[in-house]
Amino acid sequence: MTETPTVVAVSGSLRDESTTRLALRHALDAAAAAGAETELLDLREFDLPLFDPDDRDRGDAAVLKRTVRDADAVLLGTPVYHGMVSSALKNALDYLGRDDCENVTFGLLATAGGGEYGQTFEHLRTGVRHVRGWTLPQEVGIRGAASEFDGDGEFRDPDIESRVRTLGRAAVANAFVEPRAD
Questions:
Q1: Is the residue at 71 inside a domain?
Q2: Is the distance from CB of 26 to CB of 92 less than 8 angstroms?
Q3: Residue 47 has what DSSP assignment?
Q4: Alpha-helical segments (H) within 41-117
Q5: 149 contact partners, CB below 8 Å, separation of at least 6
């Protein structure tokens, strides 16, 4: 019998009507359908003061660290602001270190109001590498995200829905993969 993987999604959007959160929920639905236990970490619900390296355990930092450390795969979702990750997600990532992320599988998702998200993925990949996590080759960027969902939170474009669901399934399929150094 194989172990049931845990896939956690971290939503870096603080917006009430967040397309990032909607897309992550779709990815988690696909992960659950593939056999994972899932959890959405909505940073709106966390007390994470601005990161202070002299006090790394403020607010809900311990909960964030434990949840990521215990996950088999983590999906990071962010809106794109000025070509970068949201400040909420960046702040949460600052609390995480190698002890929390080493050899953890990360999937990346970005929602853009306009068109570009490539630099955002580069920032996320760099951050994940620095804490010795590793990223899936599947990344999902959604351009014009506000118009990609209907009133019920469902995707209008089946191709985007397919890519988001593939990200969720890939997180499950690679949850227990450990990078080899030999």
A1: yes
A2: no
A3: -
A4: 61-70, 87-95, 98-101
A5: 19, 22, 155, 156
Structural domain range at position 114: 6-173
* Of 12, 34, 16, residue with least CA distance to 172: 34
- On whether residue 60 sits in a domain, the answer given is yes
User: Would you write out the chain's pLDDT as a tens digit for each of its 182 residues?
Assistant: 368 999 999 999 999 999 999 999 999 999 999 999 999 999 999 999 999 999 999 999 999 999 999 999 999 999 999 999 999 999 999 999 999 999 899 999 999 988 788 899 999 999 999 999 999 999 999 999 999 999 999 999 999 999 999 999 999 999 988 766 55
Residue 1 falls within a domain, yes or no? no
**Rounded CA separation 154/123 (Å):** 28
Q: For the chain, how many structural domains are there in total?
A: 1
CA atoms within 13 A on the CB side of 37: 8
Strands 134-142 and 73-79 come out as unpaired
Cα 29 to chain centroid distance, Å, stands at: 14
